[in-house]
Amino acid sequence: MDLPVLLITLGVLFLAGLLADEGGRRTRLPRVTLLLACGLVAGRAGFGLIPPEVEEWYEFLSVTALTMVAFLLGSALTRDNMLRDGRAILGVSLSIVIVTLILVTGGLWLLGVPAEAALLLGAIATATAPAATQDVIQQSGVEGRFVDMIRGIVAIDDAWGLLAFSLVAVVARGLAGGLETALLLDAGREILGAVLLGTAIGLPASYLTGRLSPGEPLQTEALGIVFLTAGLAMWADLSFLIAGMTAGMIIANMARHHDRAFHEIEHIQWPFMILFFVLAGASLEPGLLAGAGMAGAAYVCLRIASRLAGGWIGGTLAGAPVAHRPWYGIALLPQAGVAVGMALVAGQEFPQYSDLVLTLTIGTTVLFELIGPAGTLLAIRKVSERG
After folding, report:
1. Could you please report the per-residue DSSP string of 86-136?
2. pLDDT per residue as tens digits for the range 72-99
3. Most confident of the following: 21-25, 194-198, 217-221
4. pLDDT tens digits, residue range 121-168?
5. By Cβ atoms counted within 10 A, which residue in 86, 146, 209, 342 is the most buried?
6. Separation between Cα atoms, residue 317 and residue 280, nearest integer Å
7. Smallest Cα–Cα separation from 145: which of 74, 81, 96, 92?
């Protein structure tokens, strides 16, 4: 790729991020949605203005940005927050996963989708989008118990979703006449291995970081830990999200000499997030949404309904504040890369349903990528207005 084209592309993308940030302030729209829309217009589905070489950065940027997000989400799982809201975080997150799995699977099956495919799609529907959710929280500028709970729920959502998908894949394989537990064992190894890796990085980092500049880790320390965590997780075929979340949680709870352990990650992440969201938008294929047909429309409606019901049920059972209960599901509508990753695995394991699962998942992800952050921002603002 020519160096002038590279520099011009970076300049345009960063300025687009600046405009999206300002547009979000003036219109009260999530800047995530604006960045995705910019990418959609400039990408393959639009005017094709983004060079193919730039699109190849997407994997690197997505892993880097999501690992940073995982650290920040893990930092929300402090001892104080868990003592105060741990029951509600676990209750709401489990309730949303279970209700989503049941409603989406049952609804699609009643509409004529084969039972195995309906199960897979129900499990895929449990996934959320940690990057979009975290960015909307930061954009809102709101702090408080509800925001801390949303961070905590999203932090552990990836683990629940992975477990649910693995269990469902085993059941679907049994329905197809070939019961295997390999996927379940792989999921257990991936989750446990990621937790162990995050612990192995988080324990020394909690003691060593923030020593050169008292009370605050340096930017190079923050970047070093992020890249090391992501690289080791990918090398070992583990979840870099869970590894980053675990390391972030350990550092936040054990690094008592830090004033604010993740301040430098918050500072450096925005340029990565700009490129990540624009290129994510460029990779979207809106035409697949139309191709999903009635099953796609049903999936969207069922997932929204199940998030609302699951959030309310979980909040009620866990004794969460009454004012928060109607808004958990709306705040957790975003869905992105984790769901697509599950769909790709499902397509490999169940090739007879590959076209259905991939088309429906990727198509509806376009919609949830665009409307989900708006739901999160609406929920945060409504709860903050009510105090």
Report:
1. HHHHHHHHHHHHHHHHHHHHHHHHHTT--HHHHHHHHHHTT---HHHHHHH
2. 778 777 787 777 777 888 888 899 999 9
3. 194-198
4. 998 888 888 878 888 888 888 888 888 888 888 878 777 877 787 778
5. 342
6. 37
7. 81
